[in-house]
Amino acid sequence: MSRSPVRYLPFVGLLIAPLSVQAAGGHYAVDDAMVVAPGSCEIEAWYSRGDGDNQDYTAVPTCNPWGNLEIGLGASRVQDAGEWDTWAELNVKSIVRPFERGGYGWGIAAATSYGGAQDRVEGGVIYLPLSVHVAETLVMNYNLGWAYERDGDDAAIWG
Questions:
Q1: CA-closest candidate to residue 32, choices 41, 40, 44
Q2: Which residues of the chain have pLDDT under 70?
Q3: How many CB atoms lie within 10 A of CB 23?
Q4: Structural domains of the chain, ranges and CATH numbers in brackets
Q5: What is the pLDDT of residue 93?
Q6: How far apart are CA 134 and CA 95, in angstroms?
Q7: Residue 123's closest CA among 91, 149, 88?
Q8: Are the CB atoms for 146 and 127 separated by under 8 Å?
Q9: 118, 132 Cβ separation under 8 angstroms
Q10: Residue 126 and residue 27: Cα distance in Å, rounded?
Q11: Which of 153, 159, 104, 112 is CA-nearest to residue 133?
Q12: What is the pTM of this model?
């Protein structure tokens, strides 16, 4: 039985673990290569706190109306350097290769954010989520993509 090179990605993850991590989304979490079941919805919500007064409350209802397209529309309440702002977020994700036990799956995802105080679209991301089934109870998720910011801080993103 031949082994797919994708199965070796967890070891790459262990090698780079001590490095700083960057990933798509305001929450800097790594997305998986799966979508919610067709015809169903879920709510993705989180709270994060950074240095000083920086914090973020986010809720994103996400639905899969047709089978292979997950659509999310949510909001964040963000405090940055003591100032509060409300952000809107739109994200979409589609799976190219469905994830399966003992294998891997990958997709493509994109998101954009609208800043309330700025009254304009402030940025967006496009990335490729990859999920690898490593062991009975372990799935490793990887993301690689690009982030656009209106202020010019565009960057490659990964996690």
A1: 44
A2: 1-29
A3: 21
A4: 5-158 (2.40.160)
A5: 97
A6: 19
A7: 149
A8: yes
A9: no
A10: 15
A11: 104
A12: 0.77
